[in-house]
Q: What sequence folds into this?
């Protein structure tokens, strides 16, 4: 399963806490406890991707992609500005693994990220089309927004999902 | 978090001492010479982190820095899978390198990390006259970026860059390769640079 992601000129790789809306292929590498949220409007071949690190912004606004609450709002706003319509948008969520077991008081960030993203999507009535979450494995995500969308998830153990 | 050149120098000297002790302890365990690079200190924006830490699969032994500062950040020993297998072989006298990581490798990796990081923190804490202890280790064998991103997520609330502090250790026979990363949180960082500045003040 060759993936030619990096050979595509327009492809965008997002770092921690970044987000992007557009028609170009997008990806993000090395998701641990972070969550990749992909929103997709298939009628317009338009997608948005955010690499979410933490569940709550607690009022911080300088990096909307970093937190679940601000990322969902920012993606929706940008999608609508780019011509997307709310009822045509579906979501894909990937990530939220727990890589380490640290002291018990450090609540599991991966699980909290997933819970936050899911409840925000539910609030807005956005359907989750596909999810691959939890577990103990790191993942990379690549997404091509064209048509129905094309998703590749690469896991650290070398296995791939191609949808 | 911008570092001036004096802070960078002080920190890399600090890391140099720690890494030298870690390298010595590794060298003693393996009974072979270990080379190390001069530590690099960089303030990296979290969004750029994937440029420094890739998605290749590595074994990472992670410690939280404890002691005087309750949660001082994290320190990580990162090794490629082959290195872990070679290290286990070296210690057990086995030779098979073409195999998957097993339980013995996992516990060997943790133990080696533990000894190296204890030496690292001991030496640096002594230099500064403070107490720094490693937490019990946690091991992840996974994409390096995924593990580092998870560590950073535990550290940052409102911070958008992290200080990465990296030394490479290598040995030719057996061919092994590893890196030590330190990600001090802002409080520990501040404490460190204050103490280091004091150490570097000219005597009057």
A:
């Amino acid at each position: 399963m060759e993936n030619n992601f990096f050979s595509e000129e327009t492809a965008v790789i997002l770092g921690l806490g970044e987000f992007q809306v557009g028609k170009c292929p997008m990806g993000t590498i090395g998701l641990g406890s972070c969550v990749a949220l992909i929103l997709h409007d298939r009628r317009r071949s338009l997608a948005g991707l955010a690499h979410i690190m933490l569940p709550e912004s607690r009022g911080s606004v300088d990096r909307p992609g970093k937190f679940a609450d601000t990322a969902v709002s920012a993606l929706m706003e940008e999608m609508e500005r780019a011509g997307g319509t709310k009822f045509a948008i579906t979501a894909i969520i990937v990530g939220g693994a727990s890589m380490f077991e640290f002291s018990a008081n450090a609540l599991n960030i991966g699980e909290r990220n997933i819970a936050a993203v899911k409840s925000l999507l539910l609030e807005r009535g956005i359907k989750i089309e596909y999810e691959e979450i939890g577990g103990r494995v790191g993942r990379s995500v690549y997404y091509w927004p064209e048509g129905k969308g094309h998703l590749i998830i690469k896991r650290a153990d070398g296995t791939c999902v191609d949808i | 978090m911008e570092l001036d050149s004096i802070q960078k120098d002080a920190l890399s000297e600090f890391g140099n001492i720690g890494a030298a002790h870690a390298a010595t302890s590794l060298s003693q365990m393996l009974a072979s010479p270990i080379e190390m690079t001069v530590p690099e200190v960089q303030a990296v924006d979290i969004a750029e982190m994937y440029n420094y830490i890739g998605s290749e699969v590595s074994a990472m032994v992670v410690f939280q820095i404890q002691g005087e500062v309750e949660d001082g950040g994290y320190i990580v020993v990162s090794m490629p899978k082959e290195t872990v297998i070679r290290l286990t072989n070296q210690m057990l006298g086995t030779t098979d390198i073409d195999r998957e990581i097993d339980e013995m490798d996992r516990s060997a990796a943790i133990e080696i990390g533990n000894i190296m990081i204890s030496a690292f923190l001991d030496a640096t804490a002594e230099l500064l006259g403070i107490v720094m202890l490693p937490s019990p280790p946690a091991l992840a064998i996974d994409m390096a970026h995924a593990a580092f991103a998870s560590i950073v997520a535990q550290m940052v609330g409102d911070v958008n860059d992290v200080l990465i502090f990296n030394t490479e250790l290598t040995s030719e026979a057996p061919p092994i390769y590893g890196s030590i990363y330190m990600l001090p949180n802002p409080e520990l960082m501040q404490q460190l640079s204050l103490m280091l500045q004091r150490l570097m003040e000219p005597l009057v």
Observations:
- The longest strand of chain B covers residues 57-67.
- Chain B has one domain: 5-198.
- Strands of chain B lie at 35-36, 40-45, 57-67, 73-80, 132-134, 138-143, 161-171, 176-184.
